[in-house]
Amino acid sequence: MATAGKTQTADEKIADAETALTELADALKAAGVTLPSLRLDPGSMAGPAPLCLVDLSRCNVKTARALAAVIRAGVTETER
């Protein structure tokens, strides 16, 4: 994770993205949702200043509905 006043190196950005990906996969798994194509987008990690995008990719209709239900359950009225 970046700290105030410090710019992350490319390696730090990639490591941070890998950690975020693992955190997301673990949270989804705990909620009973698996995104089979969840990964880091390789194209966004190229070059000296990678963006490191997380690719949620594709899932079937059942998984999409399960994900929507988990998200809805996590949103309270005060957060809307």
Automatic annotation (TrEMBL):
Top-level lineage group: Bacteria
Descriptive protein name: Uncharacterized protein
Species, as recorded: Streptomyces sp. R08
